[in-house]
Design a protein that fits this description.
alpha+beta, Butyryl-Coa Dehydrogenase, subunit A, domain 1, Butyryl-CoA Dehydrogenase, subunit A, domain 2, Butyryl-CoA Dehydrogenase, subunit A, domain 3, 3 domains, four-stranded antiparallel beta sheet, three-stranded mixed beta sheet, binds flavin-adenine dinucleotide
Length: 392
Amino acid sequence: MADDRYQGHDYYLIDELLTEEHKLIRETVRSWVKQNVSPIIEEYAQKAEFPRHLLPGLGEIGAFGPYIPQEYGGPGLDQISYGIIMQELERCDSGLRSTASVQSSLVMFPIWSYATEAQKQKWLPRLATGELLGCFGLTEPDHGSNPNGMVTNFKDAGDHVILNGAKMWISNAPFADIAVVWAKDEEGTIRGLVVERGMEGFTTPTTHGKWSLRASATGELVFDNVKVPKENLFPDIRGLKGPLSCLNSARYGIAWGALGSALDCYDTALRYSKERIQFGKPIGSFQLQQKKLAEMITEITKAQLLVWRLGVLKNDHRASPQQISMAKRNNVEIALRTAREARQMLGGMGITGEYPIMRHMMNLESVVTYEGTHDIHLLITGMDVTGFNAFT
Ligand SMILES: Cc1cc2nc3c(=O)[nH]c(=O)nc-3n(C[C@H](O)[C@H](O)[C@H](O)COP(=O)(O)OP(=O)(O)OC[C@H]3O[C@@H](n4cnc5c(N)ncnc54)[C@H](O)[C@@H]3O)c2cc1C
């Protein structure tokens, strides 16, 4: 990949809305990414390999559970800091951000919110440092957008339960030490439990052949009569609100993160437009190329304001799931559009690994699908504003 010459873009002086701490965190993560990830990410994506050696570094910069309190090993930062970290990671690669999102919002968040004190002490500090990697099992082969239909289930067997079923499309699964799994009990109620690598009957086959998120490991979780001790069950949380609260936290991070990809594509295309000469002039001097850049920075600026405001609401515990859904859908959509336009601006060079745009574009095809597809988020907003359920 060409040198990482990324500089942030702040057309509306939104930095004035950030604290000095926010800016320091951004600088720290950006320089860590430039030093440790930018030089290798293209190679790992091409090889479809997960850069596992980065886990301790991600822990050190606070990317695992940024808002988890210090008593459990997290840095105890606010929600805007969490968003900024996700943005800087995804500015480099959505797969890198996915690893951190899953660990933070889909593994540490439910343990912090729903686990017993002993469970929190057992797992959170080691997840925060990256010593342990976690994954989150909700989606099943026959139940994606409709997780309520899940068939993975467990039966009471004294001091343990017996878990059966399968989860599909699970980020981090092939390397995860623990899995937060959502399954139905004998009454058909959804419960959360932690399954640990090494438990008999638990396997995590890798999903091969992805053209997207190639530097993030994806796999299945297969449970064949797995004996899970009852102390691994979350004691009180019941129903879909458990996993949905995790998705809410992750979607918030994705809204910030996808904007990182958009910024990187814009930054690359803007620089290229000034350097690439055709017909004796930089291509950036042609009106059609300026139209693309003008539309990109306009949408990026709107998206930056959206996530900043959402972060303020989230810090105040006032961000509704519907508001988060809107930001996830909008920001991934504008990132995808930015990537597609930016790729065209680089001509043939746009399809190569010399530049990050094609990788961002392919990654975003997963981001627009996971954590609720674009269409499902449209339905959430539609239901919120009309009061009518158009899902079924
Ligand atoms: C790379 C990757 C990583 C992932 N990581 C995880 C993970 O870590 N953990 C996890 O649990 N899951 C994960 N997922 C799964 C992801 O959340 C699902 O793929 C997603 O929820 C969609 O489910 P599905 O693929 O089964 O599509 P489906 O639900 O089958 O949807 C297919 C199409 O139908 C549309 N559709 C569905 N219902 C409706 C409706 N009522 N009205 C209109 N349109 C509808 C959808 O919008 C979509 O376009 C991951 C997916 C990918 C691709």
